[in-house]
Write a structure and sequence with these properties.
single chain; mainly alpha; Growth Hormone, Chain: A; 80% helix; globular
């Protein structure tokens, strides 16, 4: 696989592992900004008479970015093999920057929808590349922490989008949030283009073809975990990204002011960032799958709390905070559990599968949420997502059980290479 960075690299030293993880995190920050900013702007989009949006149409537009993301994930594997993950990541960042500009210039809902598809394609390819690059540069027994550091960029980006929304949109309208995101994304793109990344030897030197990498994941030693990871990713992201798209409008319709509703979106993403540090540390100590069970339970508890329709802002903050910690951390820990079960050359493939299923859920979340909200308001919305959170909780329990069976079958945790010979796997993955 080609691993050179964009442009000439002969006079540049490769980035350290720490710097690679930092760069990947900043890329994901802008992915998070460009993903979540739509949910931040939904109240003003619905109020814009020139667009003619209703909740169901807004939900569809909120979902198409994830349909585009799924396309980006599917093309990222072949393109990464041809160009290298760093080059692909940089190109993908440029693509979703263009998408942000097009939304800011959009005259109608159709153009917004098409621009969001383009944004999604770039985000999907960039996210898979960034996660794989970061995971491949992780120190031994730090998979949960590194994946959390990287994917923490999503809620950090959401926090930025919320803050920009609070301070920019009342004065300059919804378009200002997209212009701000486009400018920041182009800054990160310039930094990425100036860097040179070299992937570890055990990742670059593999005899596995793309099709062999895929079939190897469904060997007897890993197939149960891979299936539960895929299912958990779908239902968890239905809830998590659905909430990111609809929380502001749902809370406004529940009687909170626009400023309070936007503040609660800040709480959702802020709690995700803060909580993820603690859950990542716990995941590296006791196992990411076990901690994922706890996080899935927190998400469900927060949603059940919102179903009581709290009139108090303090109670709403508590319930939304539980959802923020649970929803984001659950996905991080699912990804960490998956990568701990496979050999290094298979990490990119298992991350692609996890992300692909997550983007299926991410597409469905805003769409079905929009229909639920149109049909029954915020109670229907929160009931739908609570049901999905309950299914996710069951799937995370299945991941724990499947991991125990894998451990008994292979004699140690984390090999995940039951059907691979030494020439294929190269190095067993650390637990």
């Amino acid at each position: 696989m080609t691993t050179s960075a964009p442009g000439a690299t002969g006079t540049r030293s490769p980035l350290s592992s720490t710097a690679v993880v930092a760069l990947c995190m900043f890329v994901v920050v802008m992915e998070g900004y460009n993903l979540i900013t739509f949910g931040i702007t939904v109240p003003l989009l619905l109020d814009d008479p020139a667009l003619g949006l209703d909740p169901a149409t807004a939900g569809l537009i909120g979902g198409v970015v994830y349909a585009g993301g799924l396309v980006g994930i599917l093309v990222s594997g072949p393109l990464a093999d041809r160009w290298g993950r760093h080059r692909l990541m940089s190109v993908a960042v440029g693509v979703f920057a263009v998408g942000a500009v097009l939304v800011a210039l959009a005259p109608n809902a159709t153009v917004i929808g098409l621009a969001r598809v383009l944004t999604g394609i770039g985000i999907g390819a960039a996210f898979t590349s960034a996660m794989t690059l970061a995971r491949n540069h992780a120190a031994v027994n730090r998979a949960s922490l590194v994946i959390t550091l990287t994917t923490a960029g999503v809620p950090v980006g959401g926090v930025l989008a919320s803050l920009f929304g609070i301070f920019l949109m009342p004065h300059w309208g919804w378009r200002s949030n997209y212009w701000a995101g486009a400018v920041l994304t182009l800054v990160i793109l310039a930094v990425s283009l100036a860097c040179h990344i070299r992937e570890p030897e055990e990742v670059r030197n593999t005899t596995l073809s793309p099709s062999r990498r895929l079939t190897s994941l469904f060997a007897p030693s890993t197939r149960v975990v891979v299936i539960f990871v895929a299912l958990a990713s779908v239902v968890n992201l239905v809830t998590w990204l659905g909430l990111n798209a609809w929380l502001a409008e749902a809370m406004r319709s529940s009687g909170f002011s626009l400023t309070q509703a936007l503040t609660l979106t800040f709480v959702l993403t802020g709690a995700a960032v803060v909580g993820s540090w603690f859950t990542a540390t716990a995941g590296d100590r006791v196992g990411p799958a076990r901690v994922a069970v706890v996080c899935a339970a927190l998400t469900l508890a927060g949603l059940l709390g919102l179903l009581t329709e709290p009139a108090s802002l303090v109670l709403a903050v508590i319930f939304v905070g539980l959802m923020g910690i649970g929803g984001h951390s659950t996905q991080n820990l699912i990804s960490a559990a998956a990568t701990n079960q496979v050999a290094p050359p298979l990490r990119g493939t298992v991350i692609a599968i996890t992300n692909a299923m997550a983007y299926v859920g991410s597409f469905l979340g805003p769409v079905v949420g929009g229909r639920a909200f149109a049909a029954g308001g915020s109670p229907s919305l929160f009931a739908l997502y609570a049901g999905c959170a309950a299914v996710c909780l069951a799937m995370t329990v299945g991941i724990v059980a499947g991991g125990r069976r894998t451990s008994r079958g292979t004699g140690h945790r984390g090999s995940g290479a039951g059907s691979l010979g030494p020439d294929d796997a190269r190095i067993p993955d650390p637990a």
